[in-house]
Amino acid sequence: MEDQEALDLAADWADISQGLRKDLGQQMHSQWIKPIQLGSFCKQSGTLDLFLPTEFSANWVQDRFLDRLSLAWKIARSEVKSVRIQVHPGRRKMADLNLGSSPTQRRAANDRMQSGDPLGSLSDVGFTSSVGLDPSLTFAAFVTGTTNVLAFNAAERMAKVEKPQFSPLYLKAATGQGKTHLLHAIGHAYMQAHPRARIFYCSAERFMIEFVQALRQNAMIEFKARLRGFDLLLVDDIQFIIGKASAQEELLYTIDALLAEGKRLVFAADRAPQALDGVEQRLLSRLSMGLVADIQPADIELRRAILESKLTRFAPLEVPSDVIEFLARTINRNVRELVGGLNKLIAYAQLTGQEVSLQLAEEQLTDILSANRRRITIDEIQRTVCQFYRVDRSEMSSKRRARAVVRPRQVAMYLAKVLTPRSYPEIGRKFGGRDHSTVIHAVRLIEDLRQRDADMDGDVRSLLRQLES
Description:
Protein name: Chromosomal replication initiator protein DnaA
Strand order of the largest sheet: 5-6-7-4-8
Low-confidence stretches: 91-131
Structural class: alpha/beta
GO biological process, one term: regulation of DNA replication
CATH superfamily of the largest domain: P-loop containing nucleotide triphosphate hydrolases
GO molecular function: ATP binding; DNA replication origin binding; lipid binding
CATH architecture of the largest domain: 3-Layer(aba) Sandwich
Radius of gyration: 27 Å
Subcellular location: Cytoplasm
Number of strands: 8
Mean pLDDT: 81
Keywords: ATP-binding, Cytoplasm, DNA replication, DNA-binding, Lipid-binding, Nucleotide-binding
CATH topology of the largest domain: Rossmann fold
């Protein structure tokens, strides 16, 4: 009975979570609702426990979503009278601030990480961040293209020995486009250029947790002194600094103090400073006073280059070029998903002893591929091709066989097969009721021409970029 009740609760939570995702949006849901874990349900009191991993997240959900969660659960099952938000009891307690340590214990952040501390703890300088610098996220491992070269060059300059022309540096990019990679790379390069420097890397959420902890322990003087003692401050996901006006004010004063001493600051977020919600104007002004470097979504050339760079890890395993092209063209939402798709495909091939192929990619990456595919219509393809080749839209369905008309029509048929799930007969009907064999001929012809004719390959690549953007 207990197992069945747990299953019923889980099923109800899945429905409630799905509804909240639609109401709140994917980003808000992923940040605050998805981490919630079901606790116990007391039938006597009608109280249901929901657990979150940190005190900060529990307080946030309690303040903003408790009423909505309570109502949703009461609708789902009438015996739920109240919902209680708590920190997960199995969560490791944060270490106490070690503000009274001796000078010999107060080593630089990079010294502690280099000494092998598994958590990269910064408690000796007044912080308990559990996030260190990932050794794999370096400048050498970052693949550049036209969409991210500005941010890359700015990040490199921020880490050099010479004083940068701008500070703070603000990296703006959507999820999975490389802003966190560049933060870590700056930290690594700065440590090499300044071996005794004091570096602190954290998320905005972690900064707020440390601030609240110091406030409760009446240790704000020590907190400020330690924070302002860093030579390089790296803060990720600054969009989550919302709320807590006192924490924002402390960050503002810290920025001013560090800049006055010539220290370096780098922030990263998924939106521009002016688009941050709940952040006071003075802090927004400081965040945008240096350089705001935008990382645009990776174009298909950069996606290809990223995949090629990752293949060296799997040598001597071979991945056919058509598979690389397929992944680069199809998984276009963010780089993290792209690399994850390649890793999943290769892991599956290695574990099952199969060869990597286009068919295997389509079979094993269904979820990733379906999430990335934008609905491109044949009408949209015809319109784009006609504009590109400067022919009238009616020629897509006409019977004219002049070369100036036939070739664009064949390219459109090829793109319709590549970019849409339509069958050959369905495509033929959209091109003036042509037979499916005509479409097959057009697809094979364009495939062959792309191999032999650089101009044709260039035309198709250009059209693919337009249609997939």
